[in-house]
Design goal:
Elements lengths: L8 H8 L8 E4 L18 E4 L3 E2 L30 E2 L2 H9 L5 E4 L3 E3 L4 E2 L14 H7 L2 E5 L11 E2 L14 E3 L3 E6 L2 E7 L5 H6 L6 E8 L10 H17 L4 H5 L4 H12 L2
Parallel strand pairs: 1-2, 1-5, 5-8, 6-9, 8-10, 12-13
Antiparallel strand pairs: 2-3, 3-4, 6-7, 10-11, 11-12
Length: 274
């Protein structure tokens, strides 16, 4: 198993936001995709859609204001405070998907084949739910982006020649953003477009079963760009507050209540990896 640095989940989501454009209608799957909204450039207007029957939702509901009647497909509680948000029944929601009205779907994956087949709903060794709306999104969205770790927790390869797990959609994946690379499916082949600094092509190939085609304009995988660099301000603030914690023990309890240590760690992950 390769022990080189990899991007944290937040950075994968940050890189995905570069693929989302002003005015897009976007559906986010569970897991890493749900992290994307916090890294979107506020100048971009993105309408988020959920199979549960919500369009143009914004922030998650704050603690104590959860409404069990307003959730997204991942079971997260949404806020009623977003201007222009609309709700409707599930049948209409799926009509939007099947009618081709979703610009981008961002999903996770267990396996992706060289041809762009997607398997993301069932593991053979684990009881799991049904396929849900993933099969509709895989085929109905104009563009399908996969956000995932390049291998699973045991180091097993997820980019394979042929999926061994039940298929969600056939030849549907367009772009794959992982913790070490950005890959596009072009003419049923995997094209390496970006690679994480410190990694070589052979390193990525070792954890990718299909033969990679190297883009002639191969570039560095950069998750922090002008469209989302504003996010660093939050982490700088968090780091500064963390320093105060070290020198203000009497106020530590009060500050710690709204600045979790995990965010201080994430600052270093996001800022120093690239």
């Amino acid at each position: 198993m390769n022990n080189k640095n990899k991007l944290p989940r937040e950075a994968i989501a940050m890189r995905v936001t570069k693929e989302l454009h002003n005015g897009n209608v976007v559906n986010l799957g569970i897991g890493i995709p749900t992290l994307c909204p916090q890294f979107i450039d506020p100048k971009k207007f993105i309408m988020y859609h959920s199979e549960s029957g919500v369009l143009n939702y914004g922030e998650m509901a704050s603690e104590g204001k959860e409404d069990t009647n307003l959730i997204n497909a991942g079971g997260q509680y949404l806020s009623w405070d977003t201007p222009g948000m609309s709700v409707f029944d599930s049948a209409e929601s799926f009509s939007m998907i099947r009618g081709g009205h979703i610009d981008v779907a961002v999903l996770g994956a267990y396996q992706i084949s060289a041809q762009g087949d997607l398997a993301n709903w069932k593991l053979t060794n684990r009881k799991s739910g049904n396929i849900g709306g993933a099969m509709d999104l895989a085929i109905g969205a104009k563009k399908l982006i996969i956000a995932m770790e390049h291998t699973d927790k045991k180091g097993n390869i997820k980019l394979v020649n042929h999926c061994s797990l039940p298929i969600t959609g056939s030849k549907c994946v367009n772009t794959i953003v992982t913790d070490v690379a950005v890959i596009e499916i072009i003419d049923e082949s995997m094209v390496l477009k970006e690679i994480l600094p410190g990694w070589e092509i052979k390193d990525v190939q070792e954890i990718t079963e299909p033969k990679l085609i190297i883009d002639k304009n191969l570039s560095v995988l950069s998750h922090i760009g002008p469209t989302n660099s504003y996010v660093l301000f939050e982490y700088i603030f968090v780091l500064f507050t963390g320093i105060i914690l070290c020198f203000a023990p009497y106020n530590a309890g009060r500050i710690k209540s709204f600045v979790p240590a995990s965010k201080i760690i994430k600052f270093f992950d996001l800022f120093f990896l690239i």
